């Protein structure tokens, strides 16, 4: 069975640069991503392809032989693709984009549809996930770029934040809310002591957002909360609220309709707002293709027409 082409491409650039760092810079992926590709290729080939000498990667005999096989093909392929891209003014081909799960399910299909009406030669691939998984996919080349939650409780990113270009596009407000029935029975008194005794609907057993909300509004955080239900989606949190299971934290634009008709009540302890930002994230200094640039501009145009979103443009 032939080795994975992406690994052969990584090998080709490691050989040319004599280092994994140099290859990572050329390929716009992290050094750890390069090392993982090389290890998997050596496992597939069942032989080492480089020896490390004075911080340089020196090809083994097997490495030299493999390079002679792939050199002409990879160089010709990259030159040909660059030529096609340089001469093409019309977006086409595959585009791999990441997005937060609930935001992606709610808004991205409509944005994809309007983009393909303009550019039918583009095929779109959507990956939904949390910030850690999407940053990881960008770092190892699995995504062209992503729209990612930049949470108030930030995260460790592969390669560190300076490796990325982060363009804030949308501000979301996290609200603590519950059904009208639950509010009238239990939550109309908004004191800290009363609120922390109530039932809560949590996302994956993580109460970090609850702690941030209480800290923002009351200057103190609960050590624990009574979790009536733990779920893995914003939709399930909303359903739990509607079934009177307790208080949940959700971004306001997903429940604006219910807030408007009074079936869900947000808890407004102070005028402060707990915010999340969705930003377009890509590797710094990465040259966008015409397809990537056109989609990013189209996305900005489309979100301006979504009334429930507070965009930063």
Fold and architecture overview:
This protein is an alpha/beta fold. It folds into three domains: 5-87, Orthogonal Bundle (Arc Repressor Mutant, subunit A), CATH 1.10.10; 93-167 and 281-303, D-Maltodextrin-Binding Protein, domain 2; 172-275, Periplasmic binding protein-like II (D-Maltodextrin-Binding Protein, domain 2, 3-Layer(aba) Sandwich), CATH 3.40.190.10. It has twelve helices and twelve strands. It has helices at residues 5-17, 20-27, 31-45, 61-87, 101-118, 131-139, 180-187, 192-195, 208-218, 234-242, 256-261, 290-303, and strands at residues 50-53, 56-59, 93-99, 122-128, 145-150, 164-179, 199-203, 226-231, 247-251, 264-266, 274-283, 310-311. Strands 3, 4, 5, 6, 7, 8, 9, 10, 11 and 12 form a ten-stranded mixed beta sheet that branches. Strands 1-2 form a two-stranded antiparallel ribbon. Helix 9 (208-218) links the parallel strand 7 and strand 8. Helix 1 crosses helix 3 (31-45). The relative contact order is 0.13. The model has no long low-confidence stretch (mean pLDDT 87).
> Which residues sit in consecutive blocks of at least 5 with pLDDT less than 50?
none
> What radius of gyration results from the CA coordinates?
24 Å
The ordered string of helix (H) and strand (E) elements is HHHEEHEHEHEEHHEHEHEHEEHE
- Give the helix/strand class: alpha/beta
Query: Sheet with the most strands?
Result: 10 strands, mixed
What is the first-to-last residue Cα distance? 50 Å
Helix segment tally: 12
Domain count, please report it.
3
Q: How much is the average pLDDT?
A: 87
């Amino acid at each position: 069975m032939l080795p994975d082409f992406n690994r052969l491409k990584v090998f080709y650039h490691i050989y040319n640069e004599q280092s994994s760092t140099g290859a990572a810079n050329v390929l716009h992926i992290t050094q750890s991503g390069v090392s993982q590709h090389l290890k998997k290729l050596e496992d597939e080939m069942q032989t080492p392809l480089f020896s490390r000498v004075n911080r340089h990667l020196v090809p083994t005999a097997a490495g030299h032989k493999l390079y002679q096989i792939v050199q002409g093909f990879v160089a010709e392929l990259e030159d040909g693709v660059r030529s096609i891209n340089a001469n093409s003014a019309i977006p086409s081909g595959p585009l791999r984009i990441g997005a937060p799960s609930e935001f992606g399910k709610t808004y991205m299909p409509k944005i994809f549809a309007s983009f393909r009406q303009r550019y039918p030669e583009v095929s779109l691939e959507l990956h939904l996930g949390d910030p850690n998984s999407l940053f990881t996919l960008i770092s190892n080349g699995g995504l062209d770029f992503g729209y990612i939650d930049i949470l108030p409780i930030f995260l460790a990113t592969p390669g560190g934040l300076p490796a990325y270009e982060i363009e804030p596009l949308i501000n979301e407000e996290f609200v603590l809310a519950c059904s009208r029935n639950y509010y009238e029975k239990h939550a109309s008194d908004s004191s800290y002591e009363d609120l922390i005794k109530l039932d809560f609907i949590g996302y994956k057993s993580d109460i970090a957002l609850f702690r941030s909300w209480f800290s923002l509004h009351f200057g103190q955080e609960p050590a624990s909360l009574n979790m009536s239900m733990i779920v893995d989606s914003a939709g399930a949190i909303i359903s739990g609220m509607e079934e009177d299971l307790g208080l949940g934290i959700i971004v306001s634009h997903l429940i604006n309709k219910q807030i408007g008709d009074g079936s869900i009540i947000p808890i407004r302890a102070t005028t402060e707002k707990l915010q999340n930002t969705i930003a377009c994230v890509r590797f710094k200094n990465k040259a966008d293709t015409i397809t990537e640039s056109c989609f990013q501009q189209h996305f900005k145009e489309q979100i301006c027409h979504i009334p429930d979103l507070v965009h930063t443009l």
